[in-house]
Amino acid sequence: MQCPKCHAPMHTYNRNGVQIEQCSGCRGIFLDYGELESLTRLESQWQQQVPPAPPAPQAYPSAPAPAWGAPHHGGHHGGHHGHHKGGFGRMLFSS
Amino acid sequence: MTASVLLSALTATARGAAHPGQGPCACPAAGAVLADRADGTVVRHGDIVAKAHAPGTDPAELNARLAAAAALPGILLPPLTPVAADLHDRLVTFWPHGSPVDPDAPERAPWEDAATLLARLHAVPTAQLPGPLPPMRGPAKAALAVARLLAAGPHAASAPILRAWSGLPPWARAETPGGHVSALCHGDLHLGQLVRRPAGTGPWLLIDVDDLGTGDPAWDLARPAAWFACGLLPAQEWTRFLTAYQEAGGAPSLQGDPWPALDAPARALTVQTAALAVAKAVAAGRVLDEAEEALVDACDRMAAVPAELAHGVAK
Fold first, then answer.
1. ipTM of this predicted complex?
2. Aminoglycoside phosphotransferase domain: from which residue to which, for each copy (chain B) (predicted)?
């Protein structure tokens, strides 16, 4: 999906079982119905019990990128296939 | 000559090159059209592929490029005939058939093989090639894409693309020769430019010599670099490609952090791909898809980071 504010592509993340979409351009976050409640519930659980330290995110060594590049999010890439969004599959094969 | 006349003439030519006689044949893919675009028509008949090159292709330059391919058989697919033939008003070349990268499985793309072939191509001493090669046509193709965008009619994405183009150094816009580095370059690398020969089992080879020539080797890495920078190609695949290139002895300018050398070509290929996407979208009356929007967004961000200042080198 595209960001309603800046129209950049939005990437889906899983945060403690809650799916959120974050814009790769303005970093805005989109929540589906019920997701805010889920996050609030998780937050209250967090406050009630001191949780163990979260494991360091499993990150591929980040590759240098130019300043004009799209914001890359650690841990998002790799590990799954069929990730070529939009018409990128076609773009890979054309001049 | 209309496109359909060319196609039937080319089909007959491919058949004639594959075998004599006009009777029925059992050749696989007899008369299969592999590509039919303004910049080239490609027809297969059995083990033979015939390509009609773009109108206006210079015969001396094409023959020099063919000679280079013939001289580098482990890197480029060698042509079947040493010089281009005339077919009406077009130049035609003949090639053995090879199997391409599966377009339905780009995640299995042979990034390491592509990178290794490029590293070997870039290391070829150009003085040892049969004839003087023209410049590689990468920047010229970017300029043609921008010309197509200008001719396509108004579109909201044109302004950021043209602004990014105007910020590029003159050599990357094909306005001055790119004399800063001179290696043998493919000039138009993408996943459609690799085949296995023999089909399915043989080693990967580079095809399509139309843009081959001398220039900045960074151009050949710049399309995957642009895809990565635009957030389209996962960092993992880009890193595999870049690392394999560096480990195979790629150009010195691309060792270590390659971005000082890649910045201008990757910008130019982002502009080129975005310009062609918008021109096609205008012609088809469709909106840009997600990947195309990502290219336009990158063009938009380029204005904030001038190319000349990014690395302190005005090439």
1. 0.87
2. 90-250
Q: Domain spans of chain B? A: 3-96, 106-310
> Which CATH number, 3.30.200, 3.30.9, 3.30.420, 3.40.50, labels domain B3-96?
3.30.200
Query: Is the CB of A68 less than 8 angstroms away from the CB of B290?
Result: no
Interface test with A, best of B259, B267, B272 (most A CBs within 10 A): B259
**Residue A19 banded pLDDT, cuts 50, 70, 90:** confident
pLDDT at residue B106, rounded to an integer: 79
The C-alpha angle B220, B222, B228, rounded to 5 degrees, equals 135
CATH architecture for the domain at B106-310 = Alpha-Beta Complex (3.90)
pTM comes to 0.81
Decide if B245 contacts B254 (C-beta within 8 A).
Answer: yes
Task: Show the low-confidence residues of chain B (pLDDT under 50).
Answer: 309-315
Per-residue pLDDT for A18 more than 90?
Answer: no
